[in-house]
Amino acid sequence: MPILRLAGLFHSILVKISADTPARQAGKRERQYNRPLILHPLAALMLSHLFRSLRHRQFRVFYFGQMISVTGTWMQNMAQAWLVYRLSQSTLMLGMVAFAGLLPVLLFGLAGGMLADRIPRRSLLIAVQLVAITQALLMALLVLGGWVETWHVVVLAFVLGLVHAVEMPSRHSLLAELVPAQDLANAIALNSSTFNLARFAGPAIAGGVVAAYGEGPVFLVNAFSFLAVLWGLLGLTAGRSAASEATQSQWRRLREGLSYAWGERPIRAALILLTVCSLTAPTYTVLMPVFAHQVFDGDARLLGLLLGSAGIGALLAAIRLAWLGGSQHLSRNVAMAAVTAGIGMLLFANMTALPLVLPLLVVLGFSITTMAASINTLIQMQVPNQLRGRIMALFSVLFIGITSIGNLAAGYAAAHLGVATTVMAAGMVCLVTGMVYRLTLVK
Fold first, then answer.
1. pLDDT at residue 270, as a whole number
2. 23: which DSSP letter?
3. Cα separation, 205 vs 127, whole angstroms
4. What is the DSSP string of 280-316?
């Protein structure tokens, strides 16, 4: 392979340089000098394996644009949650805003998938990024002008949800056009690592900005961050043509995608688990502002730290999956991750010691990301390209859209039962579902 030959050549040159060292520097000093020379090629090979899909220019351009844009989005998510809690002091309103932001994915996500199969995915993504920029600028204007009210946040969260309903299936589907099939699993995992790196960095940065300057500048930064992904999309040559022709009615096209997902047993089983865990697992993040303020007596900085800790775990999970890269044992990984997430939520609900909570959140983030990204990979490795937009839209509806119902239920339950009881109940459901999946659905 070219990489192996390059590594060997690099090693040979370094050994020759070390051989030219004067004789008086032989012995211990020479051994110390030569020791790292063996490690450099190995490290290069490891990094080459981990980031192998980045050797494809199309994916590389898309990847770095996404990295900046998604960081801005996670900054906005954290600032929005803190803004709503500051304005309302209501767990129910936290759930309501989260519900409004994800409801469009539930209602229109499948339609977004059909669009992703009929309209060039690159064009769709450019259009929705422009809408997202407008939404973030309006949020910044309302907050910086001092005019913002809770209902403004609800409405604009719904608008951003409409963007996600089209953007997510289009983005997931576009990945298969940016890399060859043998690198698709690695590209999916690296794309997930971008999301989760932003999940760690975004809230941490936003927490400091909100504490020092308020929420307004965060929304402004997010608006400008979309320019990075626009730049990346404009540089793509892939995704400029539709994946399938409109030879069927919309209903038949939708039914074709749903029938395929239900007829494939591994996909059906994974999507059932994903649905249940999407209703329950995000509960702890929706209620995190309450934990930060009431349980741990903190401010926006602590909220950023808590969310960032979960983001670290999610990033580690994505890196692990990128390293593995294949489709082996995906079902077992999914089951174990769901069980671990359930146990983690049960522990989190009963912990008040911050030094113990932070590493626990790392485990929680690791588990939930492992489950979702493994299901994503399992589906992408099986689905034909002409159905990819519709199947990935179904994935988005069940992973993100269904979460809207869970968020609303979490806010309502927390208002009546308390945040700890609500998170414990959600964790128990996730735990039991993961065990059932492992015992009955994994071969």
1. 87
2. G
3. 28
4. HTTHHHHTHHHIIIIIS---HHHHHHHHHHHHHHHHH
For 368-409, the DSSP string reads: HHHHHHHHHHHHHTTS-HHHHHHHHHHHHIIIIIHHHHHHHH
Contact between 391 and 218 under an 8 Å Cβ cutoff? The reply is: no
Architecture of domain 51-206+213-440: Up-down Bundle (1.20)
Q: What is the pLDDT of residues 206-233, one digit of tens each?
A: 888 998 999 999 999 999 999 998 988 8
With CA atoms as reference, report the closest residue to 187 among 195, 197, 175, 171.
Answer: 175
Gap between the Cα atoms of 236 and 88, Å rounded: 43
User: What is the distance between the alpha carbons of residues 334 and 370, in angstroms, rounded to a whole number?
Assistant: 7
Number of alpha helices (DSSP H) and beta strands (DSSP E) in the chain: 18, 0
Give yes or no for residue 5 having a pLDDT over 60.
Answer: no
- pLDDT digit string (tens) for 323-368? 776 556 777 888 899 999 999 999 999 988 889 999 999 999 999 9
391 and 379 in contact (C-beta within 8 Å)?
A: yes
Sign of CA pseudo-dihedral 362, 364, 365, 370: positive
Q: How far apart are CA 208 and CA 300, in angstroms?
A: 7
DSSP tag of 212: H
| Averaged confidence pLDDT in the chain | 81
Q: What is the pTM of this model?
A: 0.70
Q: What is the pLDDT of residues 123-161, one digit of tens each?
A: 899 999 999 999 999 999 999 999 999 999 999 999 999
Tens digit of pLDDT for each residue in 185-207?
A: 788 778 877 877 787 788 888 88
pLDDT at 94: 85
* DSSP secondary structure of 37-76: HHHHHHHHHHHHHHTGGGGSHHHHHHHHHHHHHHHHHHHH
- Structure-block tokens of residue 236: 């793509």
Are 243 and 122 in contact by the 8 Å Cβ rule? The answer is no
CA dihedral 28, 31, 35, 38 (to 10 degrees): 180
Distance CA 304, CA 315 (A): 16
Domain extent listing, the chain: 2-48, 51-206+213-440
Q: What is the rounded distance in angstroms from the CA atom of residue 111 to the CA atom of residue 105?
A: 9
Local confidence band at 9 (pLDDT 50, 70, 90 cut-offs): very low
Contacts of 267 (CB under 8 A, 6+ apart): 260, 261, 378, 379, 382, 383, 391
* Cβ burial, residue 434 (10 Å; 0-12/13-18/19+): buried
Q: Any idea what DSSP says for residue 145?
A: T
Cβ 50 vs Cβ 322: under 8 Å: yes
